[in-house]
Amino acid sequence: MEQSFNEHEAIRWTQENWYKTFPLSIAYMILIFGVQYFMKERRGYKLRTPLTLWSLGLAMFSAIGAHRTWKHMISILTTTGFKRSVCNQAFYVDPVCKFWVYLFSLSKVLELGDTVFIVLRKQKLIFLHWYHHILTLIYTWYCYKEMLSGGGWFITLNLTIHTIMYSYYTVRAMGFQLPRCLAMAITLSQILQMAIGIIVSTLLIFWMGDGVCLSTWTGISFSLLMYLSYLVLFCNFFSKTYLTNTPKLKGK
């Protein structure tokens, strides 16, 4: 499947359809807030088995994708260096990872389903959650259609962290209690991802004029603003969840 995958058709299809991420995002917001309103006077569903299978499926997908993309990334790092790994556009067409890069872009639509579980189970839906899902979907499709430099690091890191995150969700959905420090570590890894995203985007500003890094001001501006907003929101979430409320939680 990897070898026979036609990445040129996939990229062309994304170029022709990426604008659909906007109406899709609007439909997503209408759905989740509509369901949240519908559930307002109703008891939340447990959905333990569906949530376990959902999280397990995404964890397995992320693990395979991370393995394939890291294989390409390590090859670039060890043969041509860090700068080439950032500027690399072969990431989108490389036989090792091209199939998984495309599936990664499509998976951002599938991951919107995370929010459906939240509202059906009547858990707290925070701004960071749905904002992050929408903006990541739009940027991922834009990045893929333009084959932007830097995408290799963005995708590889995201798949790596999602492997850990969805594995954690799977175990929790099965009913097992896990140490609080694991949840803290996952959030810290997400904060680190956002910081690296800002660094990579900044490097592209300095490198895109030398003919090696093929990027655009639109793409760089998009990624910088996105990662900066994520960094602020994730830091705020970490502070409120694990620092500010720690004494209160211990007292419960």
From TrEMBL:
It is an enzyme of class 2 (transferase). It is found in: Membrane. One of its GO terms (biological process) is very long-chain fatty acid biosynthetic process. It is a multi-pass membrane protein. The keyword Ribonucleoprotein does not apply. It comes from the Eukaryota. GO terms for molecular function: fatty acid elongase activity. Keywords: Fatty acid biosynthesis, Fatty acid metabolism, Lipid biosynthesis, Lipid metabolism, Membrane, Transferase, Transmembrane, Transmembrane helix. One of its GO terms (cellular component) is endoplasmic reticulum membrane. Pfam families: ELO. The keyword Ion transport does not apply. Its EC number is 2.3.1.199. The chain crosses the membrane at residues 22-39, 51-70, 127-144, 150-169, 181-208, 220-243. It catalyses: a very-long-chain acyl-CoA + malonyl-CoA + H(+) = a very-long-chain 3-oxoacyl-CoA + CO2 + CoA. Belongs to the ELO family. This is Elongation of very long chain fatty acids protein. It comes from Callipepla squamata.
